[in-house]
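seq as requested:
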Amino acid sequence: MKKRDALIAAFTFVLALVLAACGASASGGSSSAGGAADTEKGEGVMTYAEYMAAKPDDAVTIEAYVQGKQSWCDNKATIYAADADGAYFIYNATCTEDDYAKLVDGQKIKVTGFKAEWSGEIEVAEGATIEIEDGNYIATAVDVTDKLGTDELINFQNQKVAFKGLSVAPSKDPDGKEVAYLYNWDGSGSEGDDLYFNVTDGTNTYSFTVESYLTDKDSDVYKAVKGLNVGDAVDMEGFLYWYEGANPHITSVTVK
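struct tokens:
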């Protein structure tokens, strides 16, 4: 299923006021929980640095660990994955339904395909193959709150990240009413569609998404965002997807 084909003006990384000053430099590595990631790569397998250095349309082979499953349809799977050095978005890879069921969080996989870039998002392109391997690793979310509004944020693309100490800022629905969230980026949707909501650090305002393919209307995070009120203080985790700028796919929200 290609929800991206339905995006028209969709997401931009919203800055309400002046951009925040750049924070300290950082690499995009992940920390671990529940197992260790292999640092040795198999024959012909790229390191994260080699993968990032490859150009769009170059052949790529990676080994990584499933961190989240976004969708499966017509024997195609879309997956977030990570190793000890970075993270990957694997779009519409060839995958049977039986194999998709085996792709639990932490499961090691080998992916062979071609690199692509779509509106800033770096990914393994549609049509890649997946092999299930032995190994388990779950990355700990990296706090990137101080990277919001800086050029450094892209270094964490596709990683599991955390945002802390932010507040819910108002969105405007199609009638001009201030609300805590919208169905779809412009308020044109309904229950079951993506949720969009704004947060602020007190200076700048940013738009985050609950991607309904990744976390649907029955998920805890979908329900949590629907329960938000403007002004709520929140901590969040999610995957740092990129669409014409940072487009975090939020997977958990805690009201402080």
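The chain has two domains: 9-23+140-255, 33-139.
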